[in-house]
Amino acid sequence: MQFGSAFATIAILISISTKAYAEAYESDGVATGQSNSEITEFSADHTIMNTRTVYSKFDMADATNPMSKLTGPCFGVMEMRGGAVEGNGVCVFDGLEGDRVLLGWTARRLDPQGQVHGYWTVNSGTGLWLQASGGGTFTSKVNRSNGAAKNTIKGAITLR
């Protein structure tokens, strides 16, 4: 009888040790950087914006979140018409140890203060980010006079 229960215990321990380890992080924070966007006035109330923002700092609520170590560019295209906005793009971020993550973003609305609101997702990655998943929302504001960009993000990521 003892042999059977010892065998079962060993089988359980082996099963637990071979399962993938996953770590989840709340991803609330603020990314800051510099924006350089090209704006094309299509008509009186219709604008196309080719955006490029290079983020140099992420201040995350959880300092252990690996997003706090990321830097790199986001780029894409947004179409603004009659107060509405549509658009999407990607961000290619590098971590401290050469790891990379590709985030996708989708713009969904423009508020009266000129902030763009939308959604972000983890699309792909290397190293630490190889099997990452997650996403959330963002609110992005760019100072048109000097290009200073502030992107407030909320959400969660899981690293495997």
Structure description:
Keywords: Signal. Residues 1-22 form the signal peptide. With 160 residues, the chain is mainly β. The protein has a single domain, classed as AOC barrel-like (Beta Barrel), CATH 2.40.350.10. It has one helix and ten strands. The protein has one helix spanning 2-18; strands at residues 23-26, 29-35, 38-43, 46-60, 72-81, 84-94, 100-110, 116-125, 133-142, 148-159. The chain has an eight-stranded antiparallel barrel with strand order 2-4-5-6-7-8-9-10. Strand 3 and strand 4 form a beta hairpin. The longest helix is centred in the first third of the chain and has 17 residues, at 2-18.
Task: Set out the fold topology.
Elements: H1 2-18, E1 23-26, E2 29-35, E3 38-43, E4 46-60, E5 72-81, E6 84-94, E7 100-110, E8 116-125, E9 133-142, E10 148-159
Antiparallel strand pairs: 1-10, 2-4, 2-10, 3-4, 4-5, 5-6, 6-7, 7-8, 8-9, 9-10
Low-confidence stretches: 7-19
From N to C, what is the helix and strand string?
HEEEEEEEEEE
The tally of domains stands at 1
CATH-defined fold name: AOC barrel-like
CATH homologous superfamily caption? SO1590-like
In short:
This protein has 160 residues and is mainly beta. It contains 1 helix and 10 strands. An 8-stranded antiparallel β-barrel has the order 2-4-5-6-7-8-9-10.
